[in-house]
Amino acid sequence: xxxxxxxxxxxxxxxxxxxxxxxxxxxxxxxxxxxxxxxxxxxxxxxxxxxxxxxxxxxxxxxxxxxxxxxxxxxxxxxxxxxxxxxxxxxxxxxxxxxxxxxxxxxxxxxxxxxxxxxxxxxxxxxxxxxxxxxxxxxxxxxxxxxxxxxxxxxxxxxxxxxxxxxxxxxxxxxxxxxxxxxxxxxxxxxxxxxxxxxxxxxxxxxxxxxxxxxxxxxxxxxxxxxxxxxxxxxxxxxxxxxxxxxxxxxxxxxxxxxxxxxxxxxxxxxxxxxxxxxxxxxxxxxxxxxxxxxxxxxxxxxxxxxxxxxxxxxxxxxxxxxxxxxxxxxxxxxxxxxxxxxxxxxxxxxxxxxxxxxxxxxxxxxxxxxxxxxxxxxxxxxxxxxxxxxxxxxxxxxxx
Length: 401
Ligand SMILES: Cc1cc2nc3c(=O)[nH]c(=O)nc-3n(C[C@H](O)[C@H](O)[C@H](O)COP(=O)(O)OP(=O)(O)OC[C@H]3O[C@@H](n4cnc5c(N)ncnc54)[C@H](O)[C@@H]3O)c2cc1C
What we know:
Layout: E1 13-16, H1 20-32, E2 39-43, E3 47-49, H2 57-63, E4 71-73, H3 74-78, E5 83-87, E6 90-94, E7 99-102, E8 107-109, E9 112-115, E10 120-121, H4 129-132, H5 139-156, E11 166-170, H6 174-185, H7 189-192, E12 200-206, H8 216-228, E13 231-235, E14 239-243, E15 246-249, E16 254-256, E17 259-262, E18 266-267, H9 270-273, E19 285-286, E20 292-293, E21 296-301, E22 306-307, H10 321-340, E23 353-357, E24 363-367, E25 370-374, H11 375-394
Parallel strand pairs: 1-2, 1-9, 2-5, 9-21, 11-12, 11-17, 12-13, 19-22
Antiparallel strand pairs: 3-4, 6-7, 7-8, 10-18, 14-15, 15-16, 20-21, 23-24, 24-25
Helix pairs in contact: 1-10, 2-5
Bound molecules: flavin-adenine dinucleotide.
């Protein structure tokens, strides 16, 4: 007697999310299985978003809705693989019955699963933060922020007195830092007309040290370049409330502002937080060193959605695109190995480098142990970004940083 129809081994490999992790898993599973495994890649969007470049808010504002420089159409990417693409929003994941439910009712059974749904802004219960701040964690959010900045800059040209628009950025990690530098150094007259006034930009790094976790030399260069860009960095005070046009700090002071941007942290999306599985910080899926979900053979979590500890160093792997792609290669190998009954390999993380853009064609970074700053670091970042978008479209996978 043959296996029952839709036995788990005959069901497709389903990959949820076509970001840095999901796209790499799809490609690597297709390559390793020589396109013999059916793959269904699900994303709510028909494009792969170059999320690492969404700090380029001045350029996004100038592009006025043309998002092509920050996206890669998934149809082009998947053309040469055994993957089929399903556009839809993931509603719920039923791990027990191995079925994914899309919002709108469609059910997709899976044999193996890679959960690569990324992350969403974490507001830590700060009242008003979700309602009165912008963010650049998604393309839609970056477009909204670009429009808000364009609007306040346009209005600034016709206000009386000397007042400049004020932008407050909450979060002194690399996303907040890159965004602050970009907003402070954009020539807003190109976007909002010749009377637009340069914004005053305040970066609130909160209780955590500025650029926490990055090498001290990089942090020192970043601080200096940010100062040259005209950004005012305020350390050591947390935000306790956000209203329309005002940020309240824990020392009782109130910062009036025109635009507030939340770059203070990330957590797992709701569909992931509610899964009956081990969770780490921010509801991320706490995976085994093989990137498999404990108790769920053939189910992997990759990228920002997962919490991974390097078994050699015991350190948590950072939530970066670089790590997401490295994890994806191992998860894909293990996914195929699991289907073929072979042993799985642990993931080990080796960081290639970090570069933080600081406006005016300057950046600070470390790459393979060397510290770089100024124009060479910015050039390296540009080349790495261009190389990634070119290879993402072509279906190759190389990376400098
Ligand atoms: C401004 C900015 C700058 C950054 N710079 C760097 C950098 O220089 N270097 C670096 O390494 N990292 C950087 N990062 C971090 C990096 O972008 C993330 O770590 C990376 O995107 C994680 O990849 P991922 O595949 O896990 O998630 P994502 O790339 O976010 O992909 C998640 C995918 O899931 C889809 N999705 C989510 N929910 C659903 C749903 N319910 N239904 C269907 N689809 C869904 C999304 O549409 C998306 O395509 C930066 C991040 C930001 C915001």
